[in-house]
Amino acid sequence: MPDVGLREWIAAGRAIASGHLLRYDPGANLTSRFEKELGQTVGASHVLAVNSGSSALVAALAAAGIGPGDEVLVPAYTWMATAAAPVQVGAVPVLVDINETLTIDPEDIRAKITPYTRAIIPVHMVNAPCDMDAIMSIAKEHGLIVIEDSCQAVGVPYKDRHCGAIGDLGTFSFNKMKNMNIGEGGAVLTNDERYFIRARSYHDLGSLVRQHGDRLNEPEFVGMNFKVTEIDGAMLRVQLRKVVPMLRRMQKRRAVLADILSQSDEFTVTPHNDPGSAVSLSILAPTREKAIELTGRRGVHNRLRDSSKHLYTNWEPILQKRTFHPKMNPWAWAKREINYTPDMCARTLDILDRTCIVTLGLRYPTPLMALIARKLARAG
């Protein structure tokens, strides 16, 4: 992720000095300027800044009218917030296997669709885009809403578009581990004005004071408080100017290393849904044991099965269908019995067992990282 440094400090200081810390203060415009600039960068007509990626997912689902009795398809490999967000609006997550690209498998999407499925949340994990052409085709065929979880792929291109601006709605995260980093933050993106108005109303308690629904006479409804401050907007404008150059460096570095690693007879380079613009790099070993061995070599960051917080088998509240109050449990309102078992997405477990992330090493010269890649490819 881009560094947070002097420019963010200066921008935050100017926001504080202005005296307009609330984004809806008269005279405040830093957050709205950021939203416009982000929309222009990724090709989204409407952008709403919120306080986290998790909040963005909940607001997007609420904007789309997802609720009790609805089923939402989510991948078995993602941060738990993707599966928790449907629960927050009264819907239930249905887990879908990933394929070797580390993203949701379109074929398993088809297999998991029921008469109660209302939405798909494809997740662009570790900067790897989903097969959005296939997903959008399936959604159109079955009348489903697509809400992209692009929290781990802010600014990443997919063919001639950008992740997060392809589906009906998209979500970004600006958590400290993401491509844009202000510690915590998020955004909802859409090209649908009604969805935008509903998301904006939901993120501000359905406030009549600001008349968020006026343009389409959309009735206000009770929502949450997911607003950001002008300090957030100021820092995000700085981060936005950093993310595109960073991703270009990643794309160039990835191309060099992938070409070297593809010559290995010990493993294969993870397939990608848009190789020409890829910024992420991982390798797929033939066995779990080989993957464990690879994690001990220089240049290999980690084995994905060891990143337990992103794996469905560790989502205890979801697997046990447990909410803060038994009468607020969406599984009790579902139109069919939905159960989860630790082995229900065996293909996902197998792929994560055998996949290792390769370090791009942007802080080091390309020749040094190429040397490390050559040693990794020849080690066997």
Automatic annotation (TrEMBL):
Keywords: Aminotransferase, Pyridoxal phosphate, Transferase
Pfam families in the cross-refs: DegT_DnrJ_EryC1
Single Gene Ontology MF annotation: transaminase activity
KW Transferase (keyword) present: yes
SUPFAM superfamilies assigned to the protein according to its UniProt record, in alphabetical order: PLP-dependent transferases
Glycoprotein listed as a keyword: no
InterPro entries cross-referenced by the UniProt entry: DegT/StrS_aminotransferase (IPR000653), PyrdxlP-dep_Trfase (IPR015424), PyrdxlP-dep_Trfase_major (IPR015421), PyrdxlP-dep_Trfase_small (IPR015422)
Family assignment from sequence similarity: Belongs to the DegT/DnrJ/EryC1 family.
Protein name: DegT/DnrJ/EryC1/StrS family aminotransferase
Source organism: Paracoccus rhizosphaerae
